[in-house]
Amino acid sequence: MKACVIGDGGWGTALAMTLASNGHDVTVWGPFEENLRAVREKRENVTFLPGVPVPPEIRWTSSPGEAAAEAGLVLVVVPSRYYRDVILRFRECLPPGSLVVSATKGLDEETYSRMTRVAAELLDGRFVAALSGPTHAEEVARGYPAAAVVAGADHAAVGAIRDAFMNRRFRLYTSEDAAGVEYGGALKNVIALAAGINDGMELGDSAKAALMTRGLVEIARLGEALGARRETFGGLSGMGDLIVTCTSRHSRNRAVGERLGRGEKLSEVMGAMKMVAEGVWTCGAAVSLARSQGIEMPVTEEVRRIVHEGKDPRRAMEDLMGREARNE
Ligand SMILES: NC(=O)C1=CN([C@@H]2O[C@H](COP(=O)(O)OP(=O)(O)OC[C@H]3O[C@@H](n4cnc5c(N)ncnc54)[C@H](O)[C@@H]3O)[C@@H](O)[C@H]2O)C=CC1
Ligand SMILES: O=C(CO)COP(=O)(O)O
């Protein structure tokens, strides 16, 4: 099958390699011709996935029409901030019967919607599945074993998408709960910032475990209020992704948090970064959603204050520890 991967970042590259290794004919779209030229010449995505050779059969283009031509499968994997603009560029050229799947982990900055909702709305109500789970591009691209979930209400489409990606090193489960899968994948990035801040302040493993556990409770609380199933947050796209993002040396969100915890300012940390740390954007949307639902998300609230209001991380930790006593 012809596959179009919209997004030339680390995750787009790793998933393009997975599809190519399964025998699909893959074209990756990226916005910057300079990066694409470098990938074509060096056979390596030096900017977004350095150190991993990419197979020569994958094509790289900045033309939406060329990328989408005759595609049976379309994967959207652009950072949430650019998602709307990029989908609009593809709107007229996506083949009508193609399967569409979104692997972006974030929330829309304007509407706070999850990404498959944004895509479906811009694509006139078309079905869009979600793909999410504990998967670092650096590992999946090297063929290390990993598992994730494909979710959505259209069983046939979800099964076909699973079959396109699944192989002996990349195991995919299916789920009907796209809301749970997407909220789990987006909101854990904020808790990964908190885990990194904890690392940067050298506050230890006990505090980190507490942040992760209480973080998952608040993610599930908000997700459930927004229509997700609570049990989904115990799965790969909930607890699984929270574990890997809060503990992995590959996590950008955790790394940004670590530098904030050491006292650097957000502008210094983000200044030189070409890759994305979605949690920096998601924390604002998550707090707005939580407030609109009357839901408490104390860890997420403190992360937003540190990131966007420059609150001292030590003060934030004191405020979390000083909250009134309650029942677990
Ligand atoms: N890297 C990973 O291991 C994983 C990433 N994800 C998610 O995948 C999504 C994409 O992230 P990555 O592939 O890691 O990206 P990345 O951080 O490796 O690269 C940044 C991407 O943003 C694109 N970009 C920059 N400015 C742009 C603009 N103005 N318009 C359109 N695109 C622009 C770049 O071309 C590049 O594709 C994110 O939502 C991320 O959370 C999900 C699972 C794993
Ligand atoms: O979602 C991810 C792993 O599952 C990637 O996390 P980072 O964006 O923090 O690197």
Automatic annotation (TrEMBL):
Q: Which GO terms describe its molecular function?
A: glycerol-3-phosphate dehydrogenase (NAD+) activity; glycerol-3-phosphate dehydrogenase (NADP+) activity; NAD binding
Question: What's in the keyword line of the UniProt record?
Answer: Cytoplasm, Lipid biosynthesis, Lipid metabolism, NAD, NADP, Nucleotide-binding, Oxidoreductase, Phospholipid biosynthesis, Phospholipid metabolism
| EC number(s) on file | 1.1.1.94
Q: Where is the signal peptide?
A: none
InterPro entries given in the database record: 6-PGluconate_DH-like_C_sf, 6PGD_dom2, G3P_DH_NAD-dep, G3P_DH_NAD-dep_C, G3P_DH_NAD-dep_N, NAD(P)-bd_dom_sf
Q: Show the active-site residues.
A: K188
Binding annotation for substrate? K105, R252, N253
SUPFAM superfamilies per the record? Answer: 6-phosphogluconate dehydrogenase C-terminal domain-like (SSF48179), NAD(P)-binding Rossmann-fold domains (SSF51735)
Enumerate the spans annotated as Glycerol-3-phosphate dehydrogenase NAD-dependent N-terminal domain: 3-156
| GO CC term (a single one) | cytosol
Q: What protein name is recorded for this chain?
A: Glycerol-3-phosphate dehydrogenase [NAD(P)+]
Species for this entry: Kiritimatiella glycovorans
